[in-house]
Write a structure and sequence with these properties.
Layout: H1 2-24, E1 30-34, E2 38-45, H2 58-82, H3 88-111, E3 114-122, E4 125-126, H4 134-159
Antiparallel strand pairs: 1-2, 2-3, 3-4
Helix pairs in contact: 1-3, 2-3, 3-4
């Protein structure tokens, strides 16, 4: 049940932060948290990562993302069922990915777009030229955990 626990925590945190942004900021407002480093910048992203498909009509875009998210969550769930119980890092990583996907799906179902608000920049230079959210962050962290675990397991196999 780690998958469910981690993913529900991610969805709750993601939706709570988006609720706070929606109720306290206007679109395109930017508030420095750590000046010249971290900003809360509220945007609404109709596409996916990096704005993919943002110019497509919503009648095509939204069903596409719903089906894609359903497929991705099914794959994560099936993979999770094959992971041995003692592989905590893998199980947490999959929970982060699943929760992130579901958090952004909630936005698409409620608003037809995803609420993004985390921006990193150094003075006028953007570190990461996209604004993201808690769900995106959890997906990135989860995928990173899986990659690190995969690389470590390959090194063990090579050493043996």
């Amino acid at each position: 049940m780690m998958l469910m626990g981690v993913s529900m925590l991610v969805v709750a945190l993601d939706q709570l932060t988006k609720f706070m942004v929606l109720n306290n900021m206007y679109v395109t407002e930017s508030v420095p948290v750590l000046p010249n480093l971290l900003y809360l910048t509220y945007i609404q992203n109709p596409g996916s990562a990096f704005g993919f498909m943002s110019n497509m009509q919503s009648l095509v875009r939204i069903p596409f993302f719903i089906v894609a998210t359903a497929g991705a969550t099914a794959i994560v769930y099936m993979y999770h069922r094959m992971v041995p119980p003692e592989k905590y890092t893998t199980r947490i990583a999959l929970g982060l990915i699943w929760g992130g996907a579901l958090g952004n799906l909630v936005d698409r179902l409620l608003y037809g777009k995803v609420i993004d608000f985390i921006e990193m920049r150094y003075h006028e230079y953007e570190w990461f030229p996209y604004i993201f959210n808690v769900a995106d962050s959890c997906i990135t962290i989860g995928v990173s955990f899986l990659l690190i675990e995969f690389i470590a397991s390959q090194r063990k196999k090579t050493a043996a």
